[in-house]
Amino acid sequence: MNVTRELTVADGERLRRFLAEVPADDRSFFKEDVTDPAVTDRWLHDERSLRLVVVDEDERVLAFAALSPGLARTSHVGDLRVVVAADARRAGLGRALTRRMLGEAVRRGLRKLTVEVAATQTAVIEMFRHLGFEPEALLRDQLCDASGELQDMIVLAHMVEDTWSTMLTAGTDKALE
Question: How far apart are CA 70 and CA 53, in angstroms?
Answer without folding.
Answer: 21
